[in-house]
Amino acid sequence: MPRKPKEFTLKKIELNTLIQVLVGLYNSGVDYVDLSGSNQEGQDVVKVTVREGYYQEEEPDYEQYEQEDIIIKPNTKLSDEDLNQLI
Predict the structure, then answer these.
(1) What pTM does this model have?
(2) Residue 77: what are its φ and ψ, rounded to 5°?
(3) CA–CA–CA angle 10, 15, 16 (5° rounding)
(4) Per-residue pLDDT tens listing for the chain (87 residues)
(5) What is the DSSP annotation of 23-80?
(6) Which among 85, 53, 60 has a CA at the least distance from the CA of 70?
(7) Please, are residues 37 and 10 in contact by the beta-carbon 8 Å criterion?
(8) CA atoms of 84 and 86, how far apart (whole Å)
(9) Contact status, residue 31 vs residue 54, Cβ threshold 8 Å
């Protein structure tokens, strides 16, 4: 009989910290991570592991992306062009 995969739920994980960690890893060239979790002193904790082979083989070309400041004035409606610029 096949084993049932383990399932666990982590509750109340601080998104700001998790997103910062994942973005930092991605910007460092990481393509994949392993996630695991545990409960330490009543708080659920996410462990992010990067293994050999989880990195990009080539350095990404970040210069291909242009950065542009978009000023949004209060109480103004955004046009389709404004929304496209945000994307």
Answers:
(1) 0.55
(2) -90, 145
(3) 150
(4) 677 777 777 788 888 888 999 998 998 888 899 988 888 788 788 889 998 888 877 665 555 555 555 555 555 566 677 666 666
(5) HHHHHTTB---EEEEEEETTEEEEEEE--TT-B-SS---GGGS--------TT-PPPH
(6) 85
(7) yes
(8) 5
(9) yes
